[in-house]
Design goal:
This protein has 14 helices and no strands. By secondary structure, it is mostly helical. It has two domains: 132 residues, no CATH class; 131 residues, no CATH class. The longest helix is centred in the middle third of the chain and has 28 residues. The radius of gyration is 20 Å and the shape is globular.
């Protein structure tokens, strides 16, 4: 990757993207779900993914949640390494360490929460940068790019497979269930007003749901060309932030991963 170290445009774009990763992790810290704040949480429920088993069989998450100093140390280490990596986003040694630590964080967090969030792009974003050779970086980048595209296209296909589009009330029912606690707490505001409007106007909510499925399907274009990747970033982020506003599903952990598509042409070997 020596030739690209001096590519100022690529380096600056990488610094921006990994700065977003840093901001995402800081949001985990400030929202109280980072390593430091998992202290004392004895509950855990691991999934069928063997990656989870390895960490929990080794009792690493259990040790971290039992010792707050370990959580504070890990949070501080991750933030420090991210700052170093932003300075030099081609340092594969730091990328390897960050990948392992962020994977550990994701596994620990998902195991200790009652609900799971599969927006783990902030972890796999580091995979291409774990390699030293130019060709390996390029191949790995293409691999996770296709995974990103599949992530959204498969979501649309699953909705079509489940016949969700045949039910006009599907989204309005989802919103009603999602925000029942908010209504019971008598929360008010712009988001609540929007939710009430969509619940009482199922035809409009169905139109939004239909548009979201089409948006996810449009991503399939990326399997055939990377010419429109910049537009796909805009569409996907619009989808995520709309979801955040309407469904309270925050996109933190996925934003930097989606922005990776801005690098499609720069990371490809010519």
């Amino acid at each position: 990757m020596q030739a690209r170290i001096y590519d100022t445009t690529l380096t600056n774009k990488l610094r921006i993207i990994f700065s977003i990763v840093l901001l995402e992790y800081l949001l985990f810290v400030f929202s109280g779900v980072s390593f430091s704040f998992l202290h004392g949480n004895g509950f855990f429920s691991i999934e069928a993914d063997p990656a989870f088993w390895i960490f929990y069989l080794a009792r690493i998450p259990q040790f971290i949640t039992a010792n707050q100093w370990a959580g504070i140390l890990l949070d501080s280490t991750i933030v420090s390494l991210l700052l170093l990596f932003i300075r030099n986003p081609f340092d594969n040694r730091i990328a390897i360490i960050l990948f392992i630590l962020l994977l550990l964080f994701y596994v620990t967090l998902m195991g200790h929460l009652a609900h799971h969030n599969y927006q783990f792009g902030f972890v796999i974003l580091f995979i291409p940068f774990m390699f030293k050779k130019d060709m390996n970086k390029s191949f790995a980048f293409e691999a996770i790019r296709f995974f990103l595209l599949f992530f959204y296209v498969s979501a649309a296909l699953l909705k079509l497979w489940s016949n969700a589009l045949t039910n006009e009330f599907h989204l309005s029912h989802l919103i009603c269930g999602q925000f029942t606690p908010y209504y019971l707490e008598a929360n008010t505001g712009l988001r609540t007003d929007a939710n009430l409007f969509l619940i009482t106007h199922p035809a409009f909510s169905y139109a939004l749901y239909f548009a979201s499925v089409i948006l996810e399907l449009v991503v399939i274009i990326g399997f055939f060309t990377n010419r429109f990747d910049k537009w796909l970033v805009v569409l996907i982020l619009a989808f995520h932030f709309s979801n955040w506003f309407l469904m309270d599903i925050a996109p933190f952990g996925q934003i930097a991963f989606v922005c990776m598509l801005f690098l499609s042409k720069k990371m490809r070997l010519t």
